[in-house]
Design brief:
alpha/beta, nine-stranded mixed beta sheet, two-stranded antiparallel ribbon
Length: 243
């Protein structure tokens, strides 16, 4: 029997992934399809936590550039991540998966506050936990949230599920047909080469805490399971070969 490479993972989904072909908003059939795939992996005994971006509903940085106060713009984005988390939680529950949403901003009527001990207990009880509202502070991305929460729940890896992107390249493959895909990278190489997988704060957190990062295409059915079982798809970023 093949053993999984990762027993506990944090899956980072972009908000745009929830929009499907529409590009903006939330497309329920798309969310349900993702929830079904996550449920199938969870049924294998894998501990799963989720962080979902809010880019399908709001982006703080462009709003700030357009003249909005950056702190207010970022808090608005955090509310978008809560909306996405609640929709995903409902879809997972439809497939029989016990799910809890924890928010970094107190919203008692909607979700639990983020408490590390409680999150760990949920995972021990075979529940999926969705972390919403970012870190609770402006200027920090959901990438940083994913890295921070992965460290806090002692995850083995962060799975960066991308929309139509099958890994990390040295250039944009949609613009450059000669772009080269990396199968493996070290965290330090990502930082030195300025590869925009996640922001530098998130990359540094992952490197310092020795957490693998796997970038792969979410749109290919079964890819989450393939990554969990160690199939060589996408790009794996780790501390391997680092001196």
């Amino acid at each position: 029997m093949v053993k999984p490479k990762y027993k506990r993972v944090l899956i980072k989904l972009s908000g745009e992934a929830l929009a499907g072909e529409r590009g903006v908003g939330i497309d329920l059939p798309t969310v349900q399809k993702m929830a079904k795939e996550i449920q199938e992996v969870h049924a294998e005994g894998i501990d799963i936590a989720l962080v979902i971006g809010g880019g399908n509903l709001w982006r703080g940085e462009p709003a700030a550039k357009a003249g909005m106060d950056r702190v207010s713009a970022d808090y608005t984005g955090m509310l978008g991540t809560v909306m996405n988390a609640l929709v995903m939680a409902d879809s997972l529950k439809q497939y029989g998966v016990e799910t809890r949403v924890q928010t970094a901003i107190n919203m008692q009527q909607l979700a639990e506050p983020y408490i590390r001990g409680r999150a760990l207990r949920h995972l021990e009880k075979n529940r999926i936990v969705i972390f919403a509202a970012g870190t609770g502070s402006p200027y920090f991305s959901t990438d940083t949230t994913a890295a921070l929460r992965a460290v806090e729940i002692e995850a083995d890896a962060i799975l960066m599920a991308k929309n139509g992107v099958d890994g990390v390249y040295n250039d944009d493959p949609r613009k450059n047909a000669d772009a080269i895909k990396f199968d493996e990278l070290t965290h330090i190489e990502v930082l030195k080469q300025g590869l925009k997988i996640m922001d530098s704060t998130a990359s540094s957190l992952s490197m310092d805490n020795d957490i693998d990062l796997v970038v792969f295409n979410l749109n290919q059915p079964g890819n989450i399971k393939r990554v969990v079982y160690g199939e060589p798809i996408g790009t794996t970023v780790s501390n391997k070969h680092q001196q």
